[in-house]
Design a protein that fits this description.
By secondary structure, the protein is an alpha+beta fold. It is built from eight helices and six strands; from the N terminus they run H-H-E-E-H-H-H-H-H-E-E-E-E-H. The strands form two sheets. It has a four-stranded antiparallel beta sheet with strand order 3-4-5-6.
């Protein structure tokens, strides 16, 4: 995703686009992905196939949302809360105009010529959107794991910084800040009751982390900043912690 301007990126982009479009076309209009000799059509031709087939159905535009025909509604059964609710498959957004622009940018480079248009991030994003098709649906897991790994590294750095800062504080100063953290909450008892409040900080073990957001799984883990040591617990970190908690305790819902 981040290496769209490295040597060979144009060829890799075209190959990935061609493969993705071929899978989508074969799943939606079997046989239309190959020519008369049984060879997979080029990405440019596959885009024309999609545009033509959608035009026959009365759908024309720079972005086409391909929905699976006759898709059955999701089955609602016993599910783990916030965990495995059934969801319908999202439509696959094929950004015809953007992908055609990308091919105009990559074609000269693939043949060893200079291109007036560079391969841009929006082109890569349009390619990635094809992965929502059920026949593909592989990239999001990889990107998700990479995002989690990067956030874990950032969190380790934030923890290290907070631990170093905490080591410079005296016991008296820590106690003063714990008391002062209460002043961050609403003065009115009614408002304080409905506020997200303070939670225990995992670095200094004080109830001084001012919560700004709760995890999306409903576990109640708060994201925010500690008034004592300055540790910032991000939304991504609390969601990952809640996800792990839900998985480890899933037997309670069975």
């Amino acid at each position: 995703m981040e290496d769209h301007d490295v040597p060979g990126a144009a060829g890799l982009f075209e190959q990935a686009l061609c493969n993705g479009l071929a899978v989508i076309v074969e799943a939606r209009w079997p046989g239309s992905e190959v020519d008369s000799k049984g060879r997979v059509k080029s990405a440019k031709v596959l885009l024309e196939v999609i545009a033509a087939e959608e035009a026959r159905a009365g759908r024309i535009g720079p972005v086409l949302a391909l929905e699976e025909p006759g898709a059955a509604p999701p089955v609602v059964g016993e599910c783990i809360p916030y965990w495995d609710e059934s969801e319908s498959e999202p439509a696959v957004h094929v950004e015809i105009a953007v992908l055609r622009e990308a091919l105009r940018a990559t074609a000269p480079r693939r043949h060893g010529k200079l291109s007036e248009k560079p391969l841009e991030v929006k082109h890569i994003d349009s390619l990635a959107k094809l992965d929502t098709h059920p026949a593909l649906n592989s990239l999001h897991g990889e990107y998700g794991e990479l995002s989690v790994a990067k956030e874990q590294v950032r969190d380790l750095w934030r923890r290290h910084q907070a631990e170093n800062y905490l080591g410079m504080l005296s016991e008296a100063e820590i106690g003063r800040r714990v008391l002062a953290a209460q002043d961050l909450l609403p003065f009115d008892p009614k408002d304080r009751l409905i506020s997200l409040g303070l939670q225990e900080c995992p670095i200094c073990d004080q109830e001084s982390l001012l919560v700004e957001h709760l995890d999306d799984f409903g576990i109640g883990i708060g994201a925010g900043t500690c008034f004592v040591c300055g540790y910032y617990r991000s939304e991504a970190v609390v969601d990952e912690a809640a996800w792990q908690f839900t998985w480890l305790n899933r037997w309670k819902y069975e």
